[in-house]
Amino acid sequence: MAGLLVLASAAPLRADSYITSTGLYYKERSTRVVAPAVNAHVELPSGWSVDGGVLVDQVTSASAAFTPDDKAFTEYRIQGTLGVDYTLRSGVVGVLALDSLRVGANARVSNESDYRSILGGGRLNALFNDKLSSAGASFQYQADALRQPGPSGIRRNLKAVFVSLTGSQVITPRFLVGGVFNAQILRGYLENVYRLEQHPTERNDYSLGYFLRYRYGPWGLGGIFEQCAHYSTWGHKALTTNLEIWQTITPWLEVVPRIRVHVQGSVDFVNRLDVPDPNDPTGDPITLFTTDPTLFEAQTVTGGVRFIFAPPFLDGLQINPAYYVMYQSTRYGIAHIAQVVLYYPFSIE
Predict the structure, then answer these.
(1) Are strands 335-346 and 17-28 parallel, antiparallel or unpaired?
(2) Which domains does the chain show, CATH number per domain?
(3) Could you give the CA distance from residue 53 to residue 109 in angstroms, rounded to a whole number?
(4) Would you give the DSSP letter of residue 294?
(5) Is the pLDDT at 18 greater than 80, yes or no?
(6) From the CB of residue 172, how many other CB atoms can be counted at a distance below 10 Å?
(7) How far apart are CA 36 and CA 39, in angstroms?
(8) What's the gap between Cα 226 and its chain centre?
(9) What is the mean pLDDT of residues 117-124?
(10) In Å, how far are 60, 204, 270, 300, 332 from 27, measured between CA atoms?
(11) How many angstroms separate the CA atoms of 59 and 111, rounded?
């Protein structure tokens, strides 16, 4: 995911309106997810733009990977997003002349039977140096609430702050480099209510990544190489490496094979550390431990291919199917991921 964030955040600003419809199917040992989504981005002539979308996650039991039963879809999550941006086509900020500056705000609401999440924030992106350089920043605040049914159900809250800084530079007409820094400040309930575990109530996550993007037109060949290092104040360290190769087969068909390798270490409280109880600092210490496989030493390798299919008779419509297999050294085992994205660009005069 971190690699995808590098691309999404550091890419040059686009001026196209478009609608995307996505169908995602994910299957691992006893856990399945079906997630249809629809998103739209509309560029208005006045310099304003609006984007929004709806996603519905249909998930099997959250603890299904630890039981012998593959239950039917038992959890549904509905998510809505909305964003507004305004673009200044040119201007001066301090001593820096900008080709364009985009300022915006966004919000997201997600709800399921026992969990609610609300997020809001702002963002800005700038192009300068004759549009050869870009820089961006975003700030998000998130408030989550866990509410299990019943009078004795657990009530827990989580607050989070997300900060992202991005940048890119065109080196040659065919070569682009960029980087991203992300920080997440988490405070509150950081456990899975369906598992037996005791986690700290505070965690800071940081990631620093870069990408190299090259396109060789005469052969229709290109690619992107990304790496992102992750660090958590829980002692959790990881490195993600992603490689995609783009090959144009015909003017309306492109093949994009991909491989992603993620290697991580364990959190530092795997060996059951005793720490002061945050709810009763003068009382007996509590014992920290985890049963979350994603917090132990692990490796994942994801490989697969996607296609970009846009024949002329579809009038601009792109059909982008993809299939990936993900090997996980955790008990989750091998995962299969299938996705189809329909992309339709349009303009408003």
Answers:
(1) antiparallel
(2) 2-346 (2.40.160.40)
(3) 11
(4) G
(5) yes
(6) 7
(7) 10
(8) 15
(9) 97
(10) 10, 30, 28, 15, 10
(11) 13
For range 279-299, the mean pLDDT? 83
List the Cα angle 258/262/268 in 5-degree steps. Answer: 170
CA distance 300 to 293: 12
Question: pTM of the full predicted structure?
Answer: 0.85
Concatenated DSSP letters for 311-327? -GGGTT-EEEEEEEEEE
Q: Is the confidence at residue 63, as pLDDT, over 80? A: no
Q: Are strands 273-275 and 286-288 parallel, antiparallel or unpaired?
A: antiparallel
Cβ-contact 51, 14 below 8 angstroms: no
Pick from 45-59, 71-85, 119-133, 287-301: least confident: 71-85
Q: Which is more confident, 129 or 306? A: 306
Q: Between these two residues, 241 and 95, which has the higher pLDDT value?
A: 241
Sequence-separated (6 or more) residues with CB below 8 Å from residue 314: none
- Our CA angle for 80, 109, 167, nearest 5°, is 80
